[in-house]
Specification:
Blueprint lengths: L20 H21 L5 H4 L5
Amino acid sequence: MEATKVAFNTHGMNLFESPSEKIAQLKSIIIDEARLLLLKFQNESCSYIKKWPSK
């Protein structure tokens, strides 16, 4: 089954480089959720949190 049957394929392009309004909204949601995840688990000692990128 193809993953892009109903959607579209980016063929290696960066969707966030010059995003449409919907992609910009998606990026904002992802960043907000990642920040919440980090805040929730910031005191954990797992490598996933300890190696969290600064940007």
